[in-house]
Amino acid sequence: MPTAIPRAAELQFKEKFINRYSKLTDIDSFKEYSFSYLRKSIRVNTLKTDVKQVVSRVSKEWNLRQVPWCKEGFWIEHKGEGEDKRWDVGNMMEHVLGYVYVQEAASMIPPIVLDPKPGERVLDMCAAPGSKTTQMAAMMQNKGVIVANDITAVRLAALGINLQRCGVRNVITTQMQGYRFKEIEFDRVLVDAPCSGTGTIRKSLKTIDMWNPKLASHLAKTQKSLIKAGFNVLKPGGTLVYSTCTLEPEEDEGVVDFLLKEFPDAKVEEIKLDIKRSPAVTDFEGRKYSDEIKKCLRIWPQDNDTEGFFVAKIRKG
Fold first, then answer.
1. Which one of 70, 126, 166, 245 is the catalytic residue?
2. Residues 6+ positions from 10 with CB-CB distance below 8 Å
3. What is the pLDDT of residues 23-56, one digit of tens each?
4. How many angstroms separate the CA atoms of 305 and 203, rounded?
5. Domain 106-316 is of which CATH architecture?
6. Are 182 and 233 in contact (CB under 8 A)?
7. In the annotation, is 70 catalytic?
8. What is the CA radius of gyration of the chain?
């Protein structure tokens, strides 16, 4: 079982949140995991090294456990006890050198599902700070091109630092609204959309206070414009992955359902990963979604002791 954070007993969800999420999952289990520490995890950056070398270097001081769905991913815990135990994974020399990227295990899923190949043209529509961009660059062996876009200069600065640290050479960064992409075609598109973040409570407790019933509806409008733009610039036969770290059906299944209704040539594909998952939501608060939505990946924090995440794989044509 996960270790509860010190304030866990004092924390409470809003009544409307409880009423809403009780319809979607086991609210007690969700609360238990949301109010517990998130396991630290890293991804080996194969642009600079390989898994074997990193394991050899790091395992002297840290315990590593393989992430089942990512061969470069590991949960990591320091071997020390008491005051000697380290939690500052980001201060590891291997991180500074760009050998590893500190990345939540569930966050590794969207690039794996997208599966970009060397030489392809890829759009990362909401890229900063770069965990998925650097992951895709490694998968592509720095061959081809990734257009990494974001709208915020501060976030793009962080993206640039991470690209440089990881030795990425096949990325072009842009700053614009994602829905403005037109004309140019891409083999693959990742829309890791801005969201209400209810899957990330265990690392961002402020989400509890920020949440309100209208937030999902507001964000869903932006998400629909982003997924539509991404699909429009996707080549026939190409793959689009839509992902969020929220568990709101309106921002997840509802957005994919919108795309299916808007584009008859949009086809949802099965996601085959070694991971525990929960059923996708096909009916919520009077909204009935396409049966194709059942192919989407919905994971709650209690499923794999990770963040909550939603991922959909869509093919054009």
1. 245
2. none
3. 999 999 999 999 999 999 999 999 999 999 999 9
4. 13
5. 3-Layer(aba) Sandwich (3.40)
6. yes
7. no
8. 19
